[in-house]
Amino acid sequence: MATPTPAAEPLRPYPFSLARATGAANPALLAAILSTGRLDEISAGSREADAGIERYIRNSGFVHLNGDTNRTRCGVMFWLYPTGQHGPYRRDDNGEIHQHGTLITIEPGADLNEAVQQTRQALRRSGIAHVHIRGTCFGPALRKNSKSTQIPDSNLSWKYLQACP
């Protein structure tokens, strides 16, 4: 499920120019990412679990440090899986592997409410996939102890992107 590129959108520099949701098209890449064991895993599918999605994106994306914009300051990446499944796959009694869940990638500058809504809609109970949520900031957030830099926002005006903590 590729994200359409609006005609009025300014030129996006690499890697943002190529970043897209890949759906289930790259299972080997998704398995390689999962094999690192370095992804946070967030469950969804119940009221209690769904409340954790917004909290995770807000905290990991440092939304609270981005003024009144309600946008992520930093990119966010995690694995979303169905509540009760205990991670991205399980082995049944016959030894068969059952995959479930979605790799969620969120760019800096993504609207928190839109990111939460798209994340909730992305939950896969069977099979694995990837959903990419675009932001308005181009370029990775600067590393700690570096200066702010000017970057274009989606309206072609300039704003400052400050360092991610």
Question: Can you describe this structure?
Answer:
It is a single chain. This protein is α/β, with parallel strands linked by helices and 165 residues long. The chain has helices at residues 27-35, 47-60, 112-121, and strands spanning 41-44, 76-82, 89-91, 97-106, 127-133, 149-152, 158-161. Helix 3 links the parallel strand 4 and strand 5. Helix 2 (47-60) packs across helix 3. The longest helix has 14 residues, at 47-60. The chain starts with 26 loop residues before the first helix and ends with a strand. Mean pLDDT is 79; it is low at 139-163.
Report the sheet with the most strands, covering strand number, pairing sense and barrel closure.
Answer: 5 strands, mixed
Low-confidence stretches: 139-163
Shape: globular
Structural class: alpha/beta
Strand content: 15-25%
- Helices and strands, in order, run as HEHEEEHEEE
Q: What is the topology?
A:
Layout: H1 27-35, E1 41-44, H2 47-60, E2 76-82, E3 89-91, E4 97-106, H3 112-121, E5 127-133, E6 149-152, E7 158-161
Parallel strand pairs: 1-2, 4-5
Antiparallel strand pairs: 2-4, 3-4, 6-7
Helix pairs in contact: 2-3
